Amino acid sequence: MDILQRLGVRIREFRVARGMSQEDLADLSGLSRQYIGDVERGTRNISLVNIEKIANAFEITLSQLFDFK
After folding, report:
1. What is the Cα gyration radius of the chain?
2. Cα four-point dihedral sign 11, 19, 32, 34
3. Tens digit of each residue's pLDDT (9 = 90 or more) over 1-50
4. CA 21 to CA 3: how far, in whole Å?
């Protein structure tokens, strides 16, 4: 699995654990639902700025988001 896929899985894990839909995460992060779906599938080359928006929406640090298992 490449880094985009691993990050997408991690974002999905945080989202599901919080009982959020992709639409909820999109609203909180200021991104589109389609963009969130693409990121979770690992098909979008997400920018660092947008990674920070997602981490902020989850109220976590960037290091927590990148703590891959």
Report:
1. 10
2. positive
3. 899 999 999 999 999 999 999 999 999 999 999 999 999 999 999 999 99
4. 23
**Token code pair at residue 45:** 């080359």
CB 4: neighbour CB atoms within 10 A? 16
Distance CA 17, CA 43 (A): 22
8 Å CB contact between 8 and 42: yes
Considering only CA atoms, which of 55, 19, 29, 27 is closest in space to residue 7?
A: 55
- Count of C-beta atoms within a 10 Å radius of residue 38: 17
The model carries a pTM of: 0.94
Between CA 68 and CA 6 the distance in angstroms is: 7
Q: Where are the alpha helices (DSSP H) in the chain?
A: 3-17, 22-29, 33-41, 48-58, 62-65
